[in-house]
Amino acid sequence: MPPEAGASAHFRALESLYAAAPINNMFDSRLEIVEAGLARISFAIEPGHYHAGGAAHGTSYFKMLDDAAFYACNSLVTDRFLLTTAFNLLFTRPLKAGPVVAEGRWISGQRRVFVGEARLIDADGDEAARGTGTFMRSSIALAGLPGYSD
């Protein structure tokens, strides 16, 4: 099988793994691994995600930024599930109900620790937040996870 086919199969399996995670039942979202090191999550902010001030709670920002950076990095690892070890985020504007895209990119690392960054882009094309995370290889085999090998 050519390397592109292998990579493509890995990317589709990661997308399936994302969709199978129970937490994602709480969000109208879809992961796309665009290429090695680049992940995009399209999702919708709904009023149920709001804090008392009438905009999206920070947990929504963190979840999507972390997932986008994580999957960008895990797209480079075909045998093991990565784990988030740290994540820093910067809020730049409030998100209201509507479509949002989280764009994640691998920045560095290819052995044990990976660094990725992500940003949230609202429906107007404006950046609402950005974050940087570190991710390390775990002992969890991707092939054994529900969704990955289905």
Automatic annotation (TrEMBL):
Q: What is this protein called?
A: PaaI family thioesterase
Q: Where are the transmembrane segments?
A: none
Provide the GO MF annotations for this entry: thiolester hydrolase activity
User: Which superkingdom is the protein from?
Assistant: Bacteria
Natural source organism:
Sphingomonas panacisoli
- UniProt-listed InterPro entries: HotDog_dom_sf, Thioestr_dom
Ranges for domain Thioesterase come to 53-128
CDD domains in the record: PaaI_thioesterase
